């Protein structure tokens, strides 16, 4: 299939599923109009094809390679027609004349070029240039191409709407020039991000207000980092002067903008750029539908709350061929926080994560803000290394909501944790405990020592209420050889219908399982049932 939103005038990305007997596959070949143009490994199920002609029909086909030279079609033939060529606007040229040295703020010039960009056109920051800017707003049907450097200002004043511009904006803008957005599960007023698309409409959050946007290029988008983030927090740090910006008991902590922010957007392609040094989260998608991220390098090591890629109550998300080196969660899938998230009740759904590498940071997380529900997350052919928690499905017991239909296949991860957490708890409790169910892990290597697999459900001691983690299947999962063979590597508590099939250490021995059988209903290990 064509990866959603990736078809351009000279390029397209295609992705494919593995065949049923994929473990025998030695690689894949991609054909363009009957001619082989690319050969991939057995772990790569994507291809981005460039240097195509505009407004031209092409046919792609993917074939699986097997031992002894056997070749089998992996996909049906895929017909595409590239988009027509469109106007290119160089922001450093007249009449825009953005400073190409990065010494002078060029926000107005850049925004004017975006405003003037015709449908399907491209606004370009050319190679070898540095453009210094505050917050800019993209619009529908455009490409923003960064081949040079977009450098974000470190002055918080460059990320608010000026007094004269507030009435002109479609955004909900408050008296301080901050916009209505969402952060850590609640809608609130925050500074603008460096790159913004769309806006929040509380009367209809499912209405897509911005569409068909591509951010791409061979260059780098650099935010203002901690200097900017600290400046944003400091402006509203005084809790008595600015009570409206107190959250989690801290003045101003949650007002920071992000690096790239998409709100109620549809058909967005983020391709090939390096994004780094955000003031807070790096790429944040709120109430969006169909966003594809690929070929991107995300860097936020050392950034306070420096998440990498955060789909928030968004659906039909896809990310592949991307590298993370973050200061917090590499990926964090969210759907709101109690009680507001339960009331808005917009889930995160159909999120595909494959062919990527996460180095450092905390975790690939689902939650802890999952009050609106998370349904249908798949993880395949990913490496998660040198992280604190590996892959983590998490929620506070007060959160409510659910996580269901999670699949992980053909991965190598530090740990896999499904459990309750005790932080980010400043909200009225939901009427029910979270529900985590239908979790499948197959053909995966766990590399971390200690409790590297954890399945611990939710228990409320004051009421005695319990929500089991349920319907879990681990098939062909390998754990490391512990230094002490008697130390538990798997923890199970408040759980039911847990099945371990062919789960073993690297040396073939069975791992030790710390199972609280008083709180477990049905635990199957290699065909033997307990509980």
Automatic annotation (TrEMBL):
The answer to whether the entry has keyword RNA-binding is no
Asked if the record carries the keyword Hydrolase, the reply is: yes
Arranged from A to Z, the UniProt key words for this protein are: Glycosidase, Hydrolase
Q: Which CDD domains match?
A: FN3 (cd00063)
Q: Which GO terms describe its biological process?
A: carbohydrate metabolic process
List, alphabetically, the Pfam families matched: fn3, Glyco_hydro_28
Q: Which GO terms describe its molecular function?
A: polygalacturonase activity
Q: Where is the Fibronectin type-III domain?
A: 1-85
Which SUPFAM superfamilies does the entry link to? Answer: Fibronectin type III (SSF49265), Pectin lyase-like (SSF51126)
Which family does this protein fall into?
A: Belongs to the glycosyl hydrolase 28 family.
Q: What is this protein called?
A: Fibronectin type-III domain-containing protein
Natural source organism: Lentilactobacillus parafarraginis DSM 18390 = JCM 14109
Origin organism lineage: Bacteria, Bacillati, Bacillota, Bacilli, Lactobacillales
């Amino acid at each position: 299939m064509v990866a959603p939103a990736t078809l351009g005038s000279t390029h397209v990305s295609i992705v494919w599923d593995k065949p049923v007997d994929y473990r025998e596959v030695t690689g894949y070949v991609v054909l363009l109009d009957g001619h082989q143009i690319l050969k991939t490994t057995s772990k790569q199920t994507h291809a981005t094809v460039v240097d195509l002609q505009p407004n031209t029909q092409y046919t792609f086909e993917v074939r699986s390679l097997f031992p002894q030279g056997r070749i089998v079609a992996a996909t049906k033939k895929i017909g595409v027609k590239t988009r027509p060529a469109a106007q290119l606007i160089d922001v450093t040229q007249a009449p825009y004349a953005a400073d190409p040295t990065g010494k002078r703020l060029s926000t107005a010039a850049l925004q004017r070029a975006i405003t003037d960009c015709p449908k399907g056109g491209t606004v370009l920051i050319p190679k070898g240039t540095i453009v210094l800017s505050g917050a800019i707003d993209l619009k529908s049907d455009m490409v923003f191409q960064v081949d040079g450097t977009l450098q974000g200002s470190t002055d918080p004043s460059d990320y608010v709407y000026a007094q004269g511009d507030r009435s002109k904006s479609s955004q909900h803008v408050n008296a301080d020039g901050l916009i209505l957005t969402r952060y850590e599960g609640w809608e609130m007023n925050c500074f603008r991000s460096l790159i913004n698309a769309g806006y929040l409409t509380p009367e209809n959050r499912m209405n897509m207000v911005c569409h068909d946007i591509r951010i791409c290029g061979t260059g780098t988008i650099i935010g203002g980092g901690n200097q900017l983030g600290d400046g944003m927090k400091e402006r509203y740090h005084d809790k008595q002067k600015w009570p409206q910006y107190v959250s989690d008991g801290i003045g101003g902590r949650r007002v920071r903008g992000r690096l790239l922010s998409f709100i109620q957007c549809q058909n967005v392609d983020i391709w090939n750029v390096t994004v780094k040094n955000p003031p807070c989260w790096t790429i944040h998608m709120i109430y969006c539908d169909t966003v594809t991220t690929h070929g991107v390098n995300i860097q936020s090591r050392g950034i306070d709350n420096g998440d990498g890629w955060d789909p928030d109550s968004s659906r039909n998300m896809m990310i592949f061929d991307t590298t993370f080196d973050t200061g917090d969660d590499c990926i964090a899938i969210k759907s709101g926080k109690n009680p507001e998230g339960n009331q808005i009740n917009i889930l995160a759904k159909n999120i595909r994560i494959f062919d990527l590498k996460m180095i450092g940071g905390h975790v690939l997380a689902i939650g802890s803000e999952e009050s609106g529900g998370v349904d249908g997350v798949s993880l395949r052919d990913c490496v998660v290394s040198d992280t604190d928690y590996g892959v983590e499905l998490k929620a506070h017991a007060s959160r409510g909501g659910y996580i269901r239909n999670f699949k992980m296949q053909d991965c190598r991860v530090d740990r896999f944790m499904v459990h309750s957490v005790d932080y980010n708890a400043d909200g009225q409790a939901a009427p029910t405990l979270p529900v985590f169910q239908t979790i499948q892990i197959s053909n995966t290597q766990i590399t971390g020592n200690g409790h590297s697999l954890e399945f611990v459900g939710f228990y409320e001691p004051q009421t005695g209420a319990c929500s089991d983690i349920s319907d879990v299947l681990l098939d062909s999962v390998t754990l490391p050889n512990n230094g002490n063979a008697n130390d538990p590597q798997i923890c199970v508590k408040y759980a039911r219908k847990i099945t371990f099939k062919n789960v073993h250490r690297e040396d073939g021995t069975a791992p030790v399982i710390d199972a609280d059988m008083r709180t477990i209903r049905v635990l199957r290990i290699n065909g033997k049932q307990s509980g």
